[in-house]
Automatic annotation (TrEMBL):
Native organism: Streptomyces aurantiacus
Chain spans, region Disordered: 1-22
Biased composition (Low complexity): 1-10
Gene Ontology terms for molecular function: heme binding; iron ion binding; monooxygenase activity; oxidoreductase activity, acting on paired donors, with incorporation or reduction of molecular oxygen
Family the entry assigns: Belongs to the cytochrome P450 family.
Name of the featured protein: Cytochrome P450
Taxonomy, superkingdom: Bacteria
């Protein structure tokens, strides 16, 4: 890690100015469709830490190297999570597109030090109470209900009708929402809109409805606790307020829903398009596990995460990082860092990827295991129920959503022999 503390290299930008002449615009079609090529180019031209420009010409740093991302995420005293530290706030308009991700909120995501340990500890304890076998059974039931809704037609668009719906219902079940009720279905839909708005959707209104329904859930569970995540958070000795619990529940639900949905869909894409997996996938459960893990390395659902803010002037990857600078964690770039994969070979059995981040602010310990239960159950159940599932378009016709933050398909159209119930 000498390069994180050594002297500045010759390609250090002018002091306090990451957005110098060679800064890379973080966006565009190449980024959406073939980001791995872009990461290679950026790494070649800028090294492990690249100057980038966010929406509206706002400067930041993209941390591309595996050792560098690991260093940033394990040194909270240098790179903190409270976005109020940002030195660019005077230049940020109120309607800035990335405001939902960087505007400070009273949730666990933006806390630091002891307050973060207190809030994250409550979430960890609550999630540790989830029985993984019970979750798998529930997710299998949800999967079968979803498959039944389209199984008779012989065709489906799996992104909307399966991959998004299953983890949303799964995480809401964990939180104690009644399954199958109208308001649970409305909440599932509002979650999708607030996290992944389509044409004509109003994500702000949807997010407001999500907050209102979660507050209602918290009040219900305070009166009548049950064997669920919400009740365990309420009963925790840390004594979080209802408002804190609502904020942290929304963080848990959002983190479980969209990334897991993309993990499911990206894995199905790999299984349906890669000849290594195409030979009788439904017969080999091992290959599903391999595919799930390979996706976390090569098509990780969270490509980039904004971010960390420098607590003081410091060095990283031969760059001078100024106090208050924003660092975007390049999780996808770090996972494919040639330093850790010199032959460009990713070992499916290796799980030291950064897809769930790293350090104190990584996904709370049980969360990756619970996400794995949901994703694995979703993929295995679908392949068992519809064993002749194939893409209904050419693999090259599949397109990725226009996002530099999430890696997910716009749609995954498939066909199969109609299932008879």
């Amino acid at each position: 890690m000498s390069d994180t503390t050594g002297s500045p290299s010759t390609n250090t930008p002018p002091p306090g100015c990451p957005a110098h002449g060679s800064a890379v615009q973080l966006g565009g079609l190449e980024y959406q469709q073939t980001p791995s090529q872009l990461y290679r180019t950026m790494r070649r031209e800028h090294g492990a830490v690249a100057p980038v420009v966010l929406d509206g010409g706002i400067p930041a740093w993209l941390v591309l190297g595996y050792p560098e991302v690991s260093y940033v995420t394990s040194h909270d005293e240098l790179f903190a999570r409270d976005s109020r530290r940002w030195n660019q706030w005077p230049n940020i308009p109120a309607d800035w597109p990335l405001m939902p991700f960087v505007g400070h909120q009273p949730s666990v995501l933006f806390t630091e030090g002891q307050e973060h340990q207190r809030r994250a500890g409550v979430i960890t304890q609550a999630l540790e109470g989830v029985d993984q076998f019970e979750l798998a059974r529930e997710c299998e039931t949800i999967a079968e209900q979803l498959i039944a809704s389209f199984g008779g037609s012989g065709q489906a668009e799996l992104m909307s009708s399966y991959a998004h719906a299953l983890p949303a219902r799964g995480v809401l079940w964990m939180c104690g929402m009644p399954q199958g009720s109208t308001d649970t279905e409305q909440l599932v839909d509002d979650l999708r809109i607030s996290l992944d708005a389509g044409e004509g959707d109003d994500p702000v209104a949807a997010y407001m409805r999500v907050g209102e329904r979660i507050m209602q859930l918290v009040k219900e569970k305070r009166e009548r606790p049950g064997p669920d995540v919400t009740s365990r958070m309420l009963l925790d000795p840390a004594g979080l307020s209802d408002e804190e619990i609502v904020q942290d529940l929304i963080s848990v639900i959002a983190a479980a829903q969209q990334p897991t949905a993309n993990w499911i869909c990206n894995t199905l894409r790999l299984l349906l398009t890669d000849e290594r997996f195409a030979v009788n996938v439904s017969g080999g459960r091992v290959s599903v596990g391999d595919a799930l893990n390979e996706v976390l390395w090569l098509d990780t659902p969270t490509q980039n995460f904004i971010g960390r803010w420098a607590v003081r002037d410091t060095q990283l990857g031969g760059r001078l990082i100024r106090e208050g600078d924003c660092l975007v964690l390049g999780l996808a770039a770090a996972n494919t860092d040639p330093q850790i994969w010199p032959e460009s070979h990713v070992g499916a059995e290796n799980s030291s990827h950064l897809s769930f981040s790293n350090g104190e602010h990584r996904c709370p310990y049980p969360a990756p295991l619970l996400a794995d239960v949901m994703a694995r159950t979703a993929v295995e159940t679908l392949l068992e129920r519809l064993p002749d599932l194939v893409l209904s378009v050419e693999p090259t016709e599949l397109t990725w959503r226009p996002s530099i933050w999430m890696r997910g398909l716009t749609s995954l159209p498939v066909e199969f022999t109609p299932a008879v119930h």
